[in-house]
TrEMBL record, chain A:
Superkingdom field: Bacteria
Keywords: Membrane, Transmembrane, Transmembrane helix
Record-linked Pfam families: DUF979
Full protein name: Membrane protein
Organism of this sequence: Lacticaseibacillus pantheris DSM 15945 = JCM 12539 = NBRC 106106
Matching InterPro entries: DUF979
Keyword Signal: no
Residues passing through the membrane, by range: 44-71, 94-116, 122-141, 162-188, 200-233, 284-303
Automatic annotation (TrEMBL), chain B:
Keywords assigned: Membrane, Transmembrane, Transmembrane helix
Transmembrane segments: 7-37, 57-76, 159-178, 190-211
Keyword presence, Metal-binding: no
Protein name, as recorded: Membrane protein
Pfam families for the chain: DUF969 (PF06149)
Lineage: Bacteria, Bacillati, Bacillota, Bacilli, Lactobacillales
């Protein structure tokens, strides 16, 4: 039951990606429209028919996507802008009710996750569908508008939207290749496993440092959790949810302190024409350090 | 030779640090890791494909995009801007504190606005600057300070409350990665485990912003700042 529902939900995502593919191919202003269209077509196929095609084919498509990305042939292109006049008119008509669909999404997902046997993933899917219906009824919009907004959102999310899934995939490849056990062995040479507090400090600090170097906590999470989080904290008896959740947010402390995270730390400097290039990081650094120390404490006390 | 399979980690670290195309970097790192671990090419393609299929749940958030696009084109931003504008006539610290709470609450319901572009630049920072300059002329360095602080507060509210939403990219990535690493955990338990950190962030940020007000008091006009 749950599996069939999930297959249906993935197929729906595939359909949305197919819309993005069609509109990407049609976007003549995008010099990379064929690459971008191919990117979304492959993803649409993987999501819609993933359970019925050989994994080797999926793997091949991923390699081709990698080549397209390397050749810079995946670009967002030209997206239809939100019509500000219509948006303002709708804002006056709807007022605070505009937040209703988002609240419906959160409430329905949580209720299904907590009180049915369908689980959290199906919950998100049903929550998304119910909230979409609420939004359509509430705004009395047309099918054309839903189509336009869907393809606009999917395309604007773009390749970075699939990055989390790719990173999780990388984590799985690391596991299959035994990367985690090897790094654990290496680190164990310098740092003895078995000390719970030491493991927590090592994991949280490594998450922050590697995130700062890479500028991306999601990428650091797959690597550092395999190499340090699992062998040095979870294997010592740490609660999995607590260790993983706080491990990720420890990484965010690194994001706050690095010029590598341009979206968050350099974009505002440019937007606000600041004199001090490091002005945002300077304001964040003290809080980042305090939060990292507090999170080490939280992980130690809550996980064991 | 066993250590060669760690090259994948090096590629990820260097590739992200040098800002190479992220999609390409991740795919290459996976291929290199697999090859040096001794997988044959068909084996590698199978592992890659199967792992990607197994991790489709990370991308479930795509299902929320049509609804988000719809409310966006029907004035989500406009309504939020009007609500925040009602906060005029407060101290800089209070404006920032209310904003960080609103940002965190929005995250609980999965409303992730691009805060820096949509709110900080056009709305929050000008309000903070106006409130800071109520008693005296601000120096250029102080104006810069209000900009840096406004951007910082947006990032704080955004990062540490994000994982309170069960369909957020972060929560799904954590759940899926832990499953890959052989330590399965539900998305809901990740959300619950993220609550203490979100509360800690709010407390620390609110104290930090309250201290911020001291700089801009009327009696702090000369040489009171570094």
């Amino acid at each position: 039951m749950v599996n069939n529902l999930l297959i249906a939900l993935y197929a729906l995502i595939g359909a949305m990606m197919a819309l993005a593919a069609i509109e990407s191919f049609r976007d003549r202003s995008n010099p990379a429209r064929f690459g971008t269209g191919t990117f979304w077509t492959f993803l649409a196929i993987i999501f819609a028919f993933g359970d019925f095609i050989p994994a080797t084919v999926v793997g091949t498509m991923l390699v081709i996507i990698g080549v397209l990305a390397l050749a810079r042939q995946i670009k967002v292109g030209h997206l239809p802008a939100v019509n500000v006049q219509n948006a303002t008119a709708a804002a006056h008509r709807l007022g605070g009710w505009i937040f209703l669909p988002s609240i419906v999404l959160a409430v329905v997902s949580i209720i299904i996750a907590q009180f049915t046997s369908l689980g959290g993933q199906v919950g998100i899917g049903i929550g998304a569908l119910v909230s979409l219906i609420v939004a359509i009824v509430m705004t009395r919009t047309s099918g054309k508008q839903v189509y336009s907004d869907t393809q606009r959102m999917v395309r604007s999310v773009g390749a970075p939207g699939v990055l989390p899934q790719l990173l999780a995939t990388l984590g799985a490849v690391f596991t299959a290749a035994g990367v985690g056990t090897l790094t654990a062995k290496l680190i164990a040479g310098v740092f003895p496993a078995g000390n719970q507090f030491g493991g927590v400090v090592l994991y949280c600090v490594a998450m922050a440092v590697f995130t700062a170097i890479m500028g991306n906590a999601f990428a650091a999470f797959a690597v550092i959790t395999a190499a340090i989080g699992v062998p040095f904290v979870i294997a010592q008896g740490g609660n999995v949810a607590v260790v993983a959740a706080i491990g990720m947010t420890s990484g965010y402390c690194g994001t706050l302190m690095t010029p590598m995270a341009a979206n968050f730390n350099s974009l505002p400097v440019a937007l606000m024409e600041m004199d001090d290039e490091m002005g945002v990081i300077r304001q964040q650094a003290p809080v980042a350090i305090i939060l990292l120390v507090l999170q080490i404490g939280l992980m130690y006390f809550l996980a064991f | 030779m066993e250590y060669l399979k760690l090259l994948g980690i090096v590629i990820i670290v260097v590739g992200f640090a040098l800002k190479w195309d992220t999609t390409a970097v991740v795919v290459i790192a996976a291929i290199v890791t697999g090859l040096f671990a001794g997988m044959s090419i068909p084996d590698l393609l199978h592992t890659l494909g199967q792992s990607f299929l197994d991790n489709r749940m990370v991308s479930l958030f795509f299902l929320t995009l049509p609804m988000i696009g719809l409310v966006e084109s029907h004035g989500l931003k406009q309504v939020a801007v009007e609500a925040i504008q009602k906060l005029k006539r407060l101290t800089p610290g209070r404006i920032l504190n209310l904003y960080v709470i609103i940002r965190a609450l929005a995250n609980v319901f999965g409303i992730s606005l691009s805060g820096q572009v949509q709110f900080v630049r056009p709305l929050i920072q000008p309000m903070v600057q106006a409130a800071a300059g109520q008693h005296r002329q601000l120096t250029p360095a102080e104006v810069d300070l209000t900009k840096g602080r406004s951007a910082a507060v947006d990032n704080l509210g955004n990062f540490f409350a994000q994982n309170l939403f069960v369909a957020s990219g972060g929560v799904l990535l954590i759940a899926s990665t832990m499953k890959s690493l052989g330590k399965p955990v539900s998305a809901m338990s990740i959300v619950i485990a993220s609550i203490p950190v979100a509360i800690t962030m709010l407390v620390v940020t609110i104290i930090y912003n309250t201290l911020f007000d001291r700089r801009f008091r009327a009696d702090n006009s000369k040489g009171g700042h570094k």
